[in-house]
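Team,

Forwarding the record for the chain on the shared tracking sheet. I've put the sequence and predicted structure together so nobody has to dig through attachments.
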Amino acid sequence: MESIKVSAAVSVGLGTVLLLSACGQFQEVSESLEELGEAVESSADEATDEIASGQGDSDAASEEGSAETHAEAEERELGITGHQAGVDHTVEAVRLSPQEDGSLVVEADMRFTNTTSSDRPVALNYELRWPDGEDTYTVPGQGSFADTGGMVPAEASNSGQVEMIIDPGQVAGFDADHAVLLIGTSGRSAAQIALGPSGETVTRVPVEIPDLEGVEQQLQEEDVDDLVTITYAEIRWGGPDLSPLDNGRAHLYLEYTVQNEGDHQTCSSRGNGGWTLTQPNGDSVLDEGVSERCVSGGDTQTEIQTGFTIDAELAGDYVVVHERTRGGSATGQWEFTVAEFDGAPTEDDDDETDTGEESD
């Protein structure tokens, strides 16, 4: 019996040892699996972080590229006014917008101000012009005048836009600093607005002549006794009907009052010739007619209009003479000086014969 008990004890002891050994191995395996799971989880987290980081870099690069594309777009505030046919055309701002196809859109924000007492049309012709080496390139502009319908009411103001599209093949040679926007028809006293510091602006804005305004002359001879006062004078680049003149020509416009202090009607010449203008170069020109020829004795006529077509080389000394007649005639003479002024056309502008077509 004792041997059996010993054997049983030994068997139990061996079983316990085996069981404990098995438990130890299980624990080791369990710990190994746990470590493996943590490693897998850690690797997955790292992979996720790398993917997220890569996506972030990609988004950042995309945003940076978008920012670079946006940075290429440019807006220039100008606020420069050119004049055509009684309407001030102010270029308020210009936007330069690169396009995906490689072209460049140049859009000008415009303000149109009618300086006359009747409805006037805005200019229909616009042209972007820039030099590239010895060549000059031009692109036509397309106007959008939703607020104007192409017309500006008397003594009123409206807005609009002008758009020019530069083809991809021309963009590399485009230089906004030297570019100008032509307003009007090339060769017909078009205004020219510089888009940058190296361009030349020719405004064609009428220039008042204060030396003449309010100056009076007594025209007195036999039965003529008229006090003539020039009330307004300006030089402009449109004729009597305000239509732009050919390059190289300008128009001297006068308004005057005749106070007939005699007893009889007096008159200016029929047709033209009642006024004569001597220019700085010595050439004389006759007036292009007057709006009111005659004034009865004792009456006063105001806002009589006349004008002269003159050379566009404006600076210098002028003499203007008016003659009024009854039985005899009397004359009065006014002298004035036109100084150099900003925005006046240069000799090159006056001699320009460009048709407005693109040159290459």
